[in-house]
């Protein structure tokens, strides 16, 4: 721990003081490093590489700073650096789609910064000018601070209805940037909700049922919206909206008095989703760029099946743990264990539908690519990128068996009822998908791949702060010769002669003394 109170502001410090910070640091750092290694060859022939690496490094630095922050100001500085620097990753390609997505991203990022800053000021004022997390835990919350914090951090976390930048930014950004955006950066908003809003606050308890309902709605909305799109990275973006919904459910449950039981599960879900979604975005980038050997599909199915909660995966352990958790802990408000278990089962079915739809979109994209391999150098780069993907897949495989929070979810003692409980949603999704394709059921074509109406709002907002007809100061051009003649006409003859005599005297004096 590094104490910076004497140098900066009260409570300033950096360090990985809690298990929550340590885990967040490990999985975020792992994903950033793999994405950077992947970028070495994936972005080797891209334009503006220096700009890409500059914004990549700034976003990475901001992400690591906010995780290690022991006070709110350090968190806010890291959060701002990460959020604003990611704009350079979104608009990297420079085309119209990227600029439009970048404008929307930047607008919402700045709004989120302002909302979070307002919440920070209110919280620090209530804490008597202290900014460290320990001091904040002793001070009760108010509704305005809770609302500002959820809105400010939710714009980065990306749950419904604050998700609107995700489906625009991910298709525009390069694949490694999308991997860290979805895997690491949106988790910063989740981490902020945990550390900014202390568990057990009586007023915060009133928000738990609403946040749980919002989380489940986001989980369902993300899947249904993804089924209306056919571009893999857009489908993955809506998948993030869906998966973050479950994380928000766990965050809300962590605000209750049972936070000690919820936090390990929350950390497991965040780490598992970050690695799996990072791997899927990297694979989607490769899939859109060149034809891949059939064997490479295993690099897609390993993270996809983990998120579908297939038995013996980390996703199965997490879903089993969530059902066990809601069955044992008291539910606040109108929530009950039976309703939440039913929603989790329905969510597992919808998640399986999403990834089966994504698999079809990836196969369709591959069929439209040529067989040109690009030579030996391209093949070497492809194998390097495959090695990066294999590393993430290996982490996913080992995570539930080596990391103790997932070991505690009884993954290694699965019984037949537990296996059936996590398997039937996947089997039902396979059946439904097979029937739909056999019957060739489709919605009308205009229903697919529609542009978000939020882009119109973004353009309207742009016109407010950057009108096309801006006031400009009148340009004044002065012709010194014309001005001299005008003055001569206004001056009398005696003044002109006197001025000429004075100039002659000054010239003579200057030549003498020089």
Structure description:
- This protein has helices at about 20-40, 50-70, 70-90, 95-125, 135, 145-155, 165-170, 175-195, 200-205, 210-225, 230-255, 260-290, 300-305, 315-330, 335-365, 375-400, 405, 415-440, 455-465, 480-490, 495-514, and strands spanning about 1-5, 15.
- It folds into two domains: about 1-460, no CATH class; about 485-514.
- The model has no long low-confidence stretch (mean pLDDT about 80).
- It has about 525 residues and is mainly α.
- Helix 1 (about 20-40) packs antiparallel against helix 16 (about 375-400), helix 4 packs across helix 7 and helix 7 (about 165-170) crosses helix 11 (about 230-255).
- The chain has a two-stranded antiparallel ribbon.
The gist of it:
Belongs to the CPA3 antiporters (TC 2.A.63) subunit D family. The chain is an all-alpha fold and about 525 residues long.
Estimate the helix proportion, in percent: over 70%
Model regions low in confidence, pLDDT < 50 over at least 5 residues: none
Note the beta-strand portion.
under 5%
Radius of gyration: 29 Å
Task: Label the structural class.
Answer: mainly alpha
Total of domains = 2
Going across the major beta sheet, what is the strand order?
A: 1-2
Mean pLDDT: 82
Shape: globular
H/E series: EEHHHHHHHHHHHHHHHHHHHHH
**Number of helical elements:** 21
């Amino acid at each position: 721990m590094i104490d910076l109170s004497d140098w900066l502001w009260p409570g300033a410090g950096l360090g990985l003081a809690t298990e929550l910070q340590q885990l967040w640091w490990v999985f975020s750092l792992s994903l950033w490093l793999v994405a950077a290694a992947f970028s070495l060859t994936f972005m080797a022939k891209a334009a503006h590489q220096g700009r890409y690496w500059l914004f990549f490094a700034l976003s990475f630095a901001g992400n690591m700073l906010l995780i290690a922050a022991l006070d709110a100001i350090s968190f806010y500085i890291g959060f701002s650096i990460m959020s604003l620097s990611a704009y350079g990753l979104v608009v990297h390609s420079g085309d119209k789609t990227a600029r439009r997505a970048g404008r929307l991203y930047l607008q919402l990022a700045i709004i989120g910064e302002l909302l979070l800053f307002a919440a920070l000021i209110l919280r620090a004022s209530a804490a008597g000018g202290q900014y460290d997390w320990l001091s904040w835990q002793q001070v009760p919350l108010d509704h305005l601070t809770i609302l500002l914090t959820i809105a400010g951090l939710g714009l980065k976390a990306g749950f419904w209805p604050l998700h609107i930048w995700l489906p625009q930014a991910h298709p525009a950004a390069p694949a490694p940037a999308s991997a860290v955006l979805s895997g690491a950066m949106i988790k910063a908003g989740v981490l902020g909700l945990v550390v900014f809003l202390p568990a057990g606050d009586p007023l915060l308890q009133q928000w738990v049922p609403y946040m749980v309902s919002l989380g489940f709605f986001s989980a369902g909305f993300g899947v249904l919206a993804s089924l209306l799109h056919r571009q893999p990275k857009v489908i993955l973006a809506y998948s993030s909206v869906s998966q973050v919904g479950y994380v928000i459910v766990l965050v809300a449950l962590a605000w209750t008095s049972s936070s000690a039981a919820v936090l390990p599960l929350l950390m497991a879900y965040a780490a598992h989703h970050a690695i799996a979604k990072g791997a899927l975005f990297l694979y989607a980038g490769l899939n859109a760029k060149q034809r891949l050997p059939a064997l490479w599909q295993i690099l897609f199915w390993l993270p996809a099946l983990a998120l579908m909660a297939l038995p013996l995966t980390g996703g199965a352990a997490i879903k089993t743990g969530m059902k066990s958790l809601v069955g044992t802990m008291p539910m606040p408000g109108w929530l009950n264990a039976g309703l939440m278990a039913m929603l989790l089962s329905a969510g597992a079915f919808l998640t399986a539908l999403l990834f089966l739809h994504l698999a079809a979109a990836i196969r369709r994209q591959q069929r439209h690519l040529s067989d040109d391999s690009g030579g030996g150098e391209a093949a070497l780069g492809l194998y390097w990128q495959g090695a990066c993907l294999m590393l993430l897949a290996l982490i996913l495989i080992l995570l539930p068996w080596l990391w103790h929070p997932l070991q505690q979810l009884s993954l290694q003692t699965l019984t037949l009822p537990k296996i059936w409980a996590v398997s039937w949603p996947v089997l039902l999704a396979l059946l439904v998908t097979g029937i739909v394709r056999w019957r060739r059921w489709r919605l009308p074509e205009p229903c697919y791949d529609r542009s978000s109406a939020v882009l119109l709002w973004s353009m309207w907002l742009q016109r407010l702060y950057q009108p096309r007809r801006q006031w400009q100061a009148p340009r004044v051009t002065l012709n010194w010769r014309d001005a001299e003649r005008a003055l001569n006409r206004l001056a009398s003859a005696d003044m002109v002669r006197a001025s000429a005599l004075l100039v002659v005297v000054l010239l003579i004096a200057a030549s003498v003394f020089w």
